[in-house]
Amino acid sequence: MNIPFNIPFISGNEVTYINEVIRENVFSSPGKFAKKCEKELAKITGCDEIRLTTSCTSALELAALAIDIKVGDEVILPSFTFVSSANAFALRGAKLVFIDINPKTMCLDEMLLEKALTKNTKAVVLVHYAGLTENIEKVVEFCKINNIFLIEDAAQSIDSYYNNKHLGTFGDLGCFSFHDTKNVHCGEGGAILVNNKSLLKKVEIILEKGTNRAEFLAGKIENYTWKSFGSSYGLSEINSAFLYAQLQELKTVTKKRKELYELYQKTLQPLKQKGLIDFPETTNNHNAHIFFIKVESKKVRNDLINYLKKSGISAYFHYSPLHLSEMGKQFDFINSGNDFSKLESERMIRLPLYYQLGIEQVELVVEGIIQFYN
Ligand SMILES: Cc1ncc(COP(=O)(O)O)c(C=O)c1O
């Protein structure tokens, strides 16, 4: 038996669209397929100003530049996240302030925001983990009252909603990933949603290597010039063509992933009722990007992962809390007495979940877990 942890999705139309790019001989950003993707993403998210980027990492870096993060500015973010949520702001010299997560949602505990606030706080990074975020209104309100930016790290969240509103559309800027580990992808890619329209011009300049080329392309000026900091964050047409083929099948992908997610929930219910494992029961309309279980301890987690591996089933865990990392130790970590970022991440196991996974394979994974407990 061999059940990999992930198999990247392929829609079948990628090569057709890439051939179109080759025939038309326009490869750089932003081209026809980038525009098609942005339109498709606007339909899905409801945000009408979207730009494709080379990754979510570059979308986050772009966001840090757009809100003018400088040395001495403080940025509040959860410790339980991917390094890019932190690096993007650390690169600009920000002082990071890690806060703990709510063990139920694995997302930042909004009750700790007040404790982390200082006169230097410039932004909050809200990382949407596995579509489980709750109380987004409270985070939005906190940022509004205190006049600070809200950046959403929605790397995992394409086709995920909270109260019928797409994740990534609550803050000033929303950052998405189309890495091949995501539900739909283009190898490596991303997008930035500009919800706060006062940042749009800045975003366009930064995206165009610090120039006003966007205005030039729109026919508004005769030539373009260096205006501010910027970089090469735009997605090439080959990747955009690939991504367009994927976005067209997004709803089919979400539907299948949800069926598998619900099958895991249903078939693992007896172990949950016995108190041996735990897993989320959210009412959020999410994209089933991640299905994880929590076991009793780090030791049980490692034993179970090894047990499944012997049967050819790959299961993994992530993230190692950033406040405990070599780089992250220099920054503060605000919590309420417990370290849920450490405790909860140590007992988490992510199970295989992807479009090509069959019902029988989910049943085999579940059988493996049941056998382990027997
Ligand atoms: C929460 C989060 N933010 C950012 C990223 C970085 O995304 P990318 O690989 O597109 O740069 C990831 C990657 O998985 C992530 O999980």
Topology:
Layout: H1 14-24, H2 32-45, E1 50-53, H3 56-66, E2 74-78, H4 83-90, E3 95-99, H5 113-116, E4 121-127, H6 136-145, E5 149-153, E6 161-162, E7 165-166, E8 173-177, E9 190-194, H7 200-207, H8 213-217, H9 237-247, H10 250-273, E10 292-294, H11 298-310, E11 332-334, H12 340-345, E12 348-350, H13 359-373
Parallel strand pairs: 2-3, 2-4, 3-11, 4-5, 5-8
Antiparallel strand pairs: 1-9, 6-7, 8-9, 10-12
Helix pairs in contact: 1-9, 2-9, 3-4, 3-7, 10-13
Residues 55-57, 81-82, 84-85, 127, 153, 155-156, 177, 179, 190 line the site of pyridoxal-5'-phosphate (PLP).
Give a structural overview.
There is one protein chain. This protein has 2 domains: about 15-245, Type I PLP-dependent aspartate aminotransferase-like (Major domain) (Aspartate Aminotransferase, domain 2, 3-Layer(aba) Sandwich); about 250-374, Aspartate Aminotransferase, domain 1 (Alpha-Beta Complex), CATH 3.90.1150.10. The protein is about 35% helix and about 15% strand. It has helices spanning about 15-25, 30-45, 55-65, 85-90, 115, 135-145, 200-205, 215, 235-245, 250-275, 300-310, 340-345, 360-374, and strands spanning about 50-55, 75-80, 95-100, 120-125, 150-155, 160, 165, 175, 190-195, 290-295, 330-335, 350. α4 (about 85-90) links the parallel β2 (about 75-80) and β3. The radius of gyration is 21 Å and the shape is globular. Pyridoxal-5'-phosphate binds near residues 81, 127, 155 and 190.
